[in-house]
Write a structure and sequence with these properties.
442 residues; 5-stranded mixed barrel; 18 strands; 38% strand; alpha+beta; 24% helix; 2 domains; PmbA/TldD fold; 6-stranded antiparallel beta sheet
Length: 442
Amino acid sequence: MNAGDRQRIELLVERILTLARAAGADAAEVGATEDAGRSVSVRMGDLETVEFNREKGFGIAVYFGGHKGSASTSDTSEDAIAATVEKACSIARFTQADPYHGLADADRMATEFPDLDLDHPWQLETEAARRLALRAEDEARGFDPRIVNSEGASVSTHQMISVYGNSHGFIGTQLATRHGLSCAVIARDDGAMERDHWFTVARRADDLEAPEVVGRTAARRALARLGAGPIPTGRHAVMFAPEVSGGLFGHLVAALSGGALYRRASFLLDGLGRQLLPRGIDVVERPHRPRGLSSAAFDAEGVATTAKAFVSDGVVASYVLGSYSARRLGLSSTGNAGGVHNLTVLGKRESVATLRERMGRGLLVTELMGQGINLVTGDYSRGASGFWIEDGDIAHAVAEVTIAGNLADMYGHVIGLGDDLDPRFNVQSGTVLIEAMMIAGV
C-alpha cells in the first residue's frame, strides 16, 4: 500500500459523506479500511498453508435528528456505495429517535496527528516466511526428546489503511502494520501429553523475537506443564502471569465503560473517587506510544486521544467513554470510542523471584478458561492452569482447577506487581500477586 491507496480511500470517504448529505442527512460518519497481508505456516517440517488476503470495505452511519441508520459493505463500486448510503438512510427513517445520538462534538476532533511510527511494511516472500517458520518449529522439536508432536509454526504480515471521516469536515487516516510469528508443540512423558505455544507480535519486523526464541519458549512451556499434581482446596495466594494478568485489568476497563454504566450493569456504578486498588498503583492510557500495538491519534469518532489515568494512586479517576455513553451519563467523551489504547499498570515493581518468595505458597496462573465474570456484581470464577508454589519455588504443574473471588476484593488485595511487562498486549501489567482467592483443587 502507498500514498495512492491512502488518497483513494480518503476520496471514497468524502464521496460517501457527500452522498449522505445529498440524501438529506443532518450528519454522517464513515469508517473505511483496506487490509492486505499474507500468512505462511509449516507443520512437522513441511509447508502447510500459504494465505494471501486483501480486504476492503466501509461502514456508514447517518443521522436525521435523533434517528440513526447504519449500513456497511465490502463492495466499493459506485453502485454499491449509492445503495449502501440509501439503505442507511432508509433504516434511519424507521428507527426510534434517541436524543443522545449524533457525532462527537466538533471541537473535540483531533487537529494534531503525531507520527506514531506504526507503518513498517515487511517485504516478505513466501519462501523466506517458510524458512522463518521452520526455524521456530525446528528449534522447538529439537529442544527435548519429550517434544513429540507439533501443531505448527506460522509467520504473518499485514498492512492496513483505516480512514474515518464525518460531516464536521474531519478526515483522519492511519497506516499501520502488524507482523507476527508463533509456534505450538506437544510434549509427552509417562503417558501424559501437554500442549503449549508462544508468539511474538510487533509493528516492525525487526522488533519480533527471533524464531529460535519463539520455538524454545514454546517447548519449555509445553514441557513445564507435564507432571501436573493435585493442590489443596482453600484460600491461597494467587499470582497471575503477564500473559493472563492483563485480563484482570481488561475487566476493570469493561466495568468502567460507559455502556455498562448507563445500563447500570457494572459493579463500579458511581465509582469515580472510589479507592479500588492499593495506593501507589496507577492504570494509565498512553495512546501516542511509538510503535504501540494500539496507538492512535484519534478514537473511532475522530476525538483526539490523550494520555490519562483511569486509576490514580489506587483511586478511580476516569470512566471509559465515547460520545453516546457520555451523553447518557451527563459527561464528556474521554476519547475512548472503540476502546482503550495501550493501557499500562504502574506501581512499585519487583522481580518475579521476589514475588514468589513473598508469596511463599500458592498458585501461579498461566492459563485461564471459561468466562465466569459477572460485571454487575464483580463475581469472578474461572478455570485455571499453572504451577503450585511451595517456599517460593515451583513444586509442580497444576491443571484445570477453579479460582474464584470478587473483582473489587481482588483489586483491593493486589500486594505485588512484577517487572516483567509483556509488550504483546493492549493491556500490560506484568505479573500480579493477589493476597488470597478461593481455589477448588483436585
